[in-house]
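User: What would this chain look like folded?
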Amino acid sequence: MRAKLKIGKLVVIGVGLIGGSFALALKKAKAVRHVVGVGRGRKNLATALRMRVIDEATTEAARAVRDADLVLLGTPVGQMAEVMAEIAPHLPSHAVITDGGSTKEDVIAHARRFLGEHYARFIPAHPVAGTEKSGAAAARADLYRDRTVILTPQAESTARALRLVRAAWRRCGARVLQLDAREHDGIFAAVSHLPHVIAFALVNTLARRADARRLFGFSGGGLRDTVRIAGSSPEMWRDICLANREALLAALDGYEAELERVRAAIESGDGAALGEMFEGARAARSKWLSGTRP
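Assistant: Here's the prediction, encoded as structure tokens.
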């Protein structure tokens, strides 16, 4: 299907890094004829038009989807229920819907509730790619090249919809895998959502100190590397944390327990324990980066 894929009309609701890069990649692959971008901010839509991320812009999602072949929901996950309810009465019977959210169980529940007869043509997706930048200006045609996109289709999902969404992401250059939605949310609570929470919390810890200006003035690459992702969209990450609350809280429990181990070793002056913990982490990181299971 890779060679034959040709989407007549793609509607991207939320033309940011994820949605904009999806559109650009499919345009570059000549896999789409016309792209309509939907958003709340006219300035961002104007940027998307100027950069040729989209061919047409509108703030009216219901009007945009009326003759759509494929719809990508690229909004923060907290907005998806509202968007689904808005577009459902206007979707054509052949339209396939997908999303780019970092959580899946909540998005699937919204789709089941609000998409009605179109639910079987909704294929949940999570592109494991991105940067700390946001908006249409951050979109890149190569964002998904050699990156993983995870699909979490449901029992009701049609084979045609799954084939189309899988083929579209592959034309973006991505590797496409499938996971159970609950398993997906548990994994990404640990490897994505937790690191973002830690980065935001660390910046806030330093920024609230009376000597914050002096601290940041002396900071080096270690701090910058650690908190780079704290430059990500606050709205998006607020929604992710709330949507994946249970799995994220479990991940936070594990991290807090590890911090307590470190704290206890420091308080007791136990250099051997600290060395063992740090060496274990270094070795696990090395195995991970080399592709060996930690």
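Residues 7-179 form a domain with the Rossmann fold fold (CATH 3.40.50.720). If you want, I can go into more detail on any region.
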